[in-house]
TrEMBL record:
This is Cytochrome c2. Residues 191-269 are annotated as: Disordered. Residues 207-225, 237-256 have a biased composition (Low complexity). Residues 73-173, 302-401 form the Cytochrome c domain. Transmembrane segments: none annotated. It comes from the Bacteria. One of its GO terms (molecular function) is metal ion binding. The keyword Electron transport applies.
């Protein structure tokens, strides 16, 4: 190799090195760190200014719990989802494959199949049983639930699919799915203070009727102030009894004598009506369009409007639309209807075994403490402590069927 050829090679190497330095220098100018940025503090070439102040935390909707999903889970759908799992597991008999058999797995202690010796340390170190919640978390991401597990399955993302698989595992084991459903606790309805508005309105009505306007006008004002306390009786006295006369019919009857009869003739009739009203006991249990004998004492002052507000927390699980079920059955026309009679809803065995109708008394007792009244019910609601709130709720539910 001559000296000329050697010089060409050497010049090429030097040229390439200089080109590398040039490109590095240009790159630092465009994308490099700011001056002084090579110390402990680093600066980005391009900074995005963020708004100052605290960033509001966004509430993440986690969706329904696995217990709520199990209420409507389908074992048939779960069977189809479980087919890929049959390569490693058996759900119909006690035969192990690559993984342990899954017969009776729901409710069984974790890593407790004695005939299977391939458990990983990650599973054997876990304590407790395979509850529906634990199984759902494991099926969602086995490696996240038990880091180091030998199970190579990547996981099932949809919670509804996991609920269907669990329902299938329960069905193949001959177990009762209701025994494994745990619904989230619902906050009890706060006790509302007794409102004094009706009392104030009654007092205002009493004051609005002056006694100096004549006996005829007084007879019209008195029934108007007592509409909510007792049915108004028809005039004359020989007509239907007071308990059978609805409020709507009473109003025109009391007005008719005032318009047609002179004051001298109206006065004796008014006196007779007042004497009869004083002689008859005031029926405090009466409410509009309901006979007094049909209502228990605790329903006397029930307010459907207040019950509407108390029902709002219940809307998370129930509707008042006929045939529209959610986590719980539709409550349309539930008052005095048969217990556990909504078609298309799968009740717990504890509820399905009850007989009779949802009377005022039964609804009142059940709303106070559902789990104590019907042990084994899936209803997670803690109960309504206030007697008045329960009465208001029942009054509101009664309007749903009208």
């Amino acid at each position: 190799m001559g000296s000329l050829e050697f010089q060409k090679i050497f010049a090429s190497v030097i040229g390439a090195f200089l080109a590398l330095l040039l490109f590095t220098w240009v790159g630092d100018l465009v994308y490099g760190l700011e001056e002084g940025g090579h110390g402990d503090e680093h600066h980005l070439a391009y900074e995005i200014e963020l708004p100052e102040g605290d960033v509001a935390e966004v509430a993440v909707d986690e969706g329904p719990s696995i217990g709520e999903l199990l209420v409507t889970a389908s074992a048939e759908s779960g069977e189809g989802l479980f087919r890929p799992c049959t390569a490693c597991h058996s759900a119909t008999d006690e035969s192990n494959k690559t993984g342990p058999y899954l017969l009776n797995v729901v409710g069984r202690d974790i890593a407790s199949v004695d005939s299977f010796g391939g458990y990983s340390d990650a599973l054997t170190s876990l304590e407790g049983a395979w509850t529906a919640e634990a199984l759902s978390a494991f099926i969602e991401s086995p490696r996240a639930y038990a880091p180091g597990t030998g199970m190579s399955y990547s996981g099932m993302r949809r919670a509804a699919d996991r609920a269907d698989v669990i329902a299938y595992l329960v069905s193949t084991s001959g177990q009762n799915l209701e025994d494994f459903i745990v619904l989230p606790e619902a906050a009890p309805v706060e006790e509302a203070a007794t409102e004094e508005a009706p009392v104030e309105e009654a007092e205002a009505n009493d004051e609005a009727a002056p006694a100096t306007e004549g006996e005829a006008e007084a007879t019209e004002a008195a029934p108007a102030a007592e509409v909510e306390e007792a049915p108004v009786e028809e005039a004359p006295a020989e007509a239907a009894p007071a308990e059978e006369a609805p409020v709507e019919e009473a109003a025109p009857v009391t007005e008719a004598p005032v318009e047609e009869a002179p004051a001298e003739e109206a006065a004796p009739e008014v006196v007779e009506e007042e004497e009869e009203a004083a002689a008859e006991p005031v029926v405090e249990e009466a409410v509009t369009e309901t006979a007094a004998t049909d209502l228990p004492e605790f329903m006397v002052n029930a307010s459907a409007e207040d019950g509407r507000r108390a029902f709002r927390p219940c809307m998370a699980c129930h509707t008042l639309d006929e045939g529209a079920n959610r986590v719980g059955p539709s409550l349309y026309n539930v008052v005095n209807n048969d217990i556990a009679s909504v078609e298309g809803f799968r009740y717990s065995s504890a509820m399905a075994e009850l007989e009779g109708n949802w009377t005022y008394e039964k609804l009142n007792t059940y709303l106070e403490a559902p789990r104590s009244t019907v042990p084994g019910t899936r209803m997670a609601f803690a109960g309504v402590r206030s007697q008045q709130d329960r009465a208001n709720l029942i009054a509101f539910l009664e309007t749903s069927g009208q």
